[in-house]
Amino acid sequence: MGALRVFRVLYVQVLVGIALGVLVGALWPHLGVALKPLGDGFIKLIKLTIAPVIFCTVAGGIARMSDIKAFGRLGARTIIYFEVVSTFALILGLIVGRTVQPGRGFNVDPATLDPSVAQGYAEKAAHSESVAAYLLHLIPETFFSAFAEGQLLQVLVVAVLTGFACVRLGEFGDRVAGFLDDASKVFFSIIHIVVRLAPIGAFGAMGFTIGKYGVAALVKLAALVATFYATSLIFVLVVLGIVAALAGFSILKFLAYIREELLIVLGTSSSESVLPQIMEKLQRLGAGKTTVGLVIPTGYSFNLDGTNIYMTLATLFLAQATNTHMTLVQELTLLAVAMLTSKGASGVTGAGFITLAATLAVVPDIPVASLALLVGVDRFMSECRALTNLCGNGVATLVLARWERDLDREVLRRELDAGPAVAAAAAQ
Questions:
Q1: CATH number where 36 lies
Q2: Which domain holds residue 361?
Q3: What pTM did the predictor assign?
Q4: Measured distance CA(330)–CA(39) in Å, rounded
Q5: What is the pLDDT of residues 168-198, one digit of tens each?
Q6: Which of 141, 232, 359, 374 suits a disulfide with 388, CB 3.0-4.6 Å?
Q7: What is the DSSP letter of 407?
Q8: Is 304 within 8 Å of 86 (Cβ atoms)?
């Protein structure tokens, strides 16, 4: 009976789903590839709740704020925090790439690579939007188009405007805020139903990854993959660990608290698959609804620590693999450009390659065709990118909530000490 009770725990079911997916993908690759709709379907079910959850949380939170200036201050502090921590991630990737040199010894002749593999990503990077066009894109065509297209930042803009409008409407605005709170409970209830399908989604996504790219691709570029995972782990435990300690909580306890979300991300290779759940857990940890509602959606576009590490590390790997010498000036230029190209990456299809191709433009000596070297393992590294991004945004929310005095530190301590079992019980 004890063993059966263990298998009723969601994170155990997700682990089993991941293991079975790896097994099926390795033994029956064609069947593994055919399982892709299971992973895609689960992510789509989660995504259908993301926009309404963000809208209700942010609009309702602002509507109940007594100090509107505090919201503007929170936004400014959020951007500052994101830029500082993201820069640390970029620098760490650069330092590790120079020290470990995972691409050394490959001696790849770019002429032997198939340029068509990387051409599509390079063209998308070349036609990337200007800063002005990107800012204009933040404004949706209609009130509902942001929801229909799933554009998180556009939904955030609509939510902020709605919240401010409610503040101006006085008592009627309070009634609207109450309705938004009730509506958010409905969407979170939907999430609790859908998340029970996470083991199936993880099974399908992992089966597809192993079936399509194979374990051989992972082994061939194991040095790069291992270096990336180790660097990301160092960033989470050391950099985010120090930030968390300064904010008064343990990074290890926090990681244990969100272990179910981490496993779902590992299985689906998408941090968006747990966006609503992580927002709910952060509120349960004592962070204010308005802070959670602003920081998490914004962080999904502007605080991509895992993507930042990947950008600098992968660029140095390609330079080393093709025996392309990079000067210190070029590396510093790479760092500066990566700060810009990594922003908004989560909203772009094939984001890892597109942003990497855009970054390579500053080092023209590295052939764009060398991106073909990463095709086989990018899916494996995307899992680590998503995990690191999730951890970074979770820590950022708690830090900014404390900075804004919008964090109940006693609740945070009690919840983290109680552990994930209590969190899971509360979600039932």
A1: 1.10.3860.10
A2: 2-427
A3: 0.81
A4: 40
A5: 888 888 898 889 888 988 988 888 888 888 8
A6: 232
A7: B
A8: yes
